[in-house]
Design brief:
The structure is a homodimer. By secondary structure, chain A is α/β, with parallel strands linked by helices. The first copy, chain A, contains 12 helices and 14 strands. Chain A has helices spanning 9-21, 57-68, 95-101, 121-128, 139-145, 147-155, 185-196, 205-211, 220-226, 249-252, 267-276, 288-296; strands at 34-39, 42-48, 78-83, 106-111, 132-135, 159-167, 200-204, 232-236, 259-262, 281-285, 302-308, 310-311, 326-336, 339-346. An 8-stranded mixed beta sheet of chain A has the order 9-8-7-10-6-11-14-13, with helices on both faces. Chain A has a 5-stranded mixed beta sheet with strand order 2-1-3-4-5, with helices on both faces. In chain A, α10 (249-252) links the parallel β8 (232-236) and β9 (259-262). The longest helix of chain A has 13 residues, at 9-21.
Amino acid sequence: MSSNDPFTDEDWMQLAISEAQKGVGLTAPNPPVGAVIVKDGMMIGKGWHQCAGKPHAEREAIAAVKQNHSLEAMIGATIYVTLEPCSTQGRTPPCTQGILDHGIKRVVYGADDPNPDHAGRAKSLLEEAGVSVTTGICQAECIDLIRPFSKAQLTGLPWIILKSAISLDGKITRPPGESQWLTSPESRQHVQQLRYTSDAIITGGNTLRNDDPALTIRDEAKLKQTGKKQPWRMIITRGDASSLSQSSQVFTDRYQDRTLVQENGDLLQALKKLVEKGCHTVLVEAGGTLMGAFIDAGLADEVAIFYAPMITGGDMPGFAGLEREVSLRESKFTQIGDDLLLSAFIDQTSL
Amino acid sequence: MSSNDPFTDEDWMQLAISEAQKGVGLTAPNPPVGAVIVKDGMMIGKGWHQCAGKPHAEREAIAAVKQNHSLEAMIGATIYVTLEPCSTQGRTPPCTQGILDHGIKRVVYGADDPNPDHAGRAKSLLEEAGVSVTTGICQAECIDLIRPFSKAQLTGLPWIILKSAISLDGKITRPPGESQWLTSPESRQHVQQLRYTSDAIITGGNTLRNDDPALTIRDEAKLKQTGKKQPWRMIITRGDASSLSQSSQVFTDRYQDRTLVQENGDLLQALKKLVEKGCHTVLVEAGGTLMGAFIDAGLADEVAIFYAPMITGGDMPGFAGLEREVSLRESKFTQIGDDLLLSAFIDQTSL
């Protein structure tokens, strides 16, 4: 923090985080990243990474300064970035070089590069070049932003969110003759938001047969505006693909080229196929058996469970066939319409 | 509100409600009631009904004024009562008479007498005697306080709260070898509070056989201090009483004379027996089948469901065998320790 800056590093990093959040759902296989450039207590530029192939957040922020100020404005400035700047040549030149080229004299970042071979490399490189570096500002939030990217980097598997809509007694079914929806319109709108921040949606053969879901983002105008593509759709069936009706929406609609099938119920194979397609965040919207299989296999990272305010005594549980119980951590409850949304992480150590 | 009273009727009624709350769990077959007497913007006395046979709240408040002030202090005063004062001779003389005898010139009450034959009778009687009467202040809260009393008055049946502790997937069981408790110590303490405000606890023959629960209030010092008795314990079995182990805690502990048995799974008979014992608020702490039976029979009024932050995939559902789904209204979620408590009313119109 320069002495004539009335704001703290945390204040500026929060702005960078807000920038990064604009890219959630759009950037895979890259992480969402935000950057803010500050000089004499004033923000002179900000930017976020919009999608793979486009400039990194640091470059976007630098471009914004160039557009609105003189090049000299950047000399002696501080850049706040949610993630450690890249130091290797990728699709774009390394951001560390961009920082040095423009005379920025201080770099503040939140999360280290999750790749242990790269972590801290930008710090040493910049410090050797005489730039002051501060790390770990708003670290938890910055790490949070790149959870899916980090998991993919470290394990080759995507971040898995299990989404379910159940009654207060844990059932996904309603009696015959009732609406197919347990939850409120507000919750269904929230599911659209979850889909928007996901790269792929998984469902099971049974759900396909029973419900014939579209598994799409409905707001096409928003997709057009942001460049977001429809999520990949992965149908996991225990049998072979021929058991699935070829007239299902996912095989016949205008996004049919974004539908994949995994036979023999092979979860790991399904996830690897999705990672190959560049997917990092995967939403599972399926029946209880497939949900239980993901938990049992230790492949699920997070749950988003919408509870409808009713007790159905139905037949079909939202989570079935678990071999052992699993604990959740950082449970967060949010009222959405008449429903309750539980968001929590699966505690893998409890498996 | 007299012109030199800086507080509103609602302010004073809130005080009366606080008084009434002290009696919740203690007063059946009477309702909990609170009263506050105000003169010239100052409270000069307050009181609450402590148990059947002791003075009504109005009499307690009048006695408090007498103890701390001159008798004249009451002349021209206002009394705030949560419930319409009684106007008929019961175990104690009618409170309307007490009000007139002491020169109180204004009566403000929240809830009408739930007995339609009595409702509004105090109002006319007092107004005829020249007393000003205002009704319906904080009405919803005042009606809420006497829910169990009102239900018993109108239907001859007690107010039934279904208490369950389940996993997020709706199961009451944990895998073998784990602690028998799903929920946190804080939740179990909260259950003690629910028992304290109840007149009886119902469980089923199966729970008795499997868990041998004590179904008691543990804090004996608090019982002694408040005069609260251990709740009645009602064991409902589908077979006959001989199928229950006579060595169970409820048949052998020092409160064994407060244990009742209902054979043939006859819910209605069980509830009538409890009402005969003066019980108005009854907590059901049972397995899924008995819970479901209460809901299906339209006998359940409220749920208190503690959700533990785990997904167990267990065998035993918290609510089982329901013939139709039931909606809940006025859902209230509260974090308790690591658990979530859902309190809600059962919407009988949804059955």
